[in-house]
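Here is one such protein, fold included:

. . .
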Amino acid sequence: MTTRSLCGQWDFCTDVCGTPKHYNTQLPVPGNWKDYSAFQEYNGSAWYRRTFTISPEELKRHLSIRFGGIFRHAEIWLNGNFIEEHEGYQAPFHVDISGQVFCGENTLEVRVDNQPPVDGISNTDLFTILPISLAGIYDPVSLEISENIRISRIYAPVDLKNNTLHIILDAYRWTVTMPSPEKESEYLLTATFRYDGGEICNSWPLFVFPAVVIDTAKEIYLHYLSRHLFEDSTVPVRHFTIPQPIGENQLIVTEFVYGGMLDAVENGASLLLLAGEKTFQNTVTANSFKSPWWEIASIWYLNHTNNRQVCGIAENHPALDTLPYYGSWKLDLFDCIEQAPAINLDALGLCVDPILYGIDLELNRYGYLFEFRLGKGRILVSTLNHSRSDIHASSVIYRIKTLINYAMSDRFSPSSTLSRKQLADALQHDMY
């Protein structure tokens, strides 16, 4: 694949309802229109425009445009035709333009609206507290030219026979859909692409996740820096502020923790902490499962790998009821923790209930999912993949929603207890 940057000076104009577009200035991409005095106070929609050329040879290949980030709602137009729209500003996204471009010059236009949606946290709580300080195409834009087909969307298979679906592809862009299953399932997707002179066949494992409705047994409070977790959700959430009467009927969901949240937990609130590599001390960061310290003879063998790892899992734990694994492990669960941070529970002296963990050569436990009590409340810590770049993936959404529902339920009942000081000592100093 080759990549061509589309960054630089783009034509720009604000979008005035009922009047034609009039590009009267230029702004850089990537950039924020609020960085410029003429548009510093402007909130609403605006248009960006630039041209790019496609050669006859490139026209035969697969073409897509990658947007690194747009705040907040975007409509993509090519040569005067509407192509696609995108909501949300955290995750990069691709727009397939194969078969929609000309040989020679093409005109790309992007209509950006930085205003929050009508419902949800953004309109009710978040943007009444925080000003809208971001607007426009704030991350790089590039043209991607590839020999291969980009499978842009796979949701699930339609007609299944023996857990295998065969699809013949006569176009570059295709979608596979099916009703939501009752439980997670694994299938084999086999596809054939026919072209002049031959055909290409390939197969992919396909994990299908059921739709999960978040329970409303408790009020959900959200740290504003973690708002991307509910960006596309209709679940009512509130912005966490101090002071605030929070107790047994509230659940705090956050990637960051500070004293006010722990006050709420000690008063009876539940807290789901989606921890990163800088949340706790003594944390192993990327690619933990393939590090040298996984060399001891395996207690359980991790499926679909050539490595031997010691891996622990709390069998029949209610937090794992809806997470896919067969026996002690499953490939999809391995995928979600392969790049995740691993917290050295024993080096930190944390006497907690580990649900999903690894063991190194010195028999230290490295936690990916664990729980404990604090005062009258409970805390569930997860390092499973919840990154901003993957937050729209069906498996990530499924995991987060099921953990939220578990943290709301009566089944969330840790047997271990930590003191406020023990937890504070284990957190990174700038986290508390």
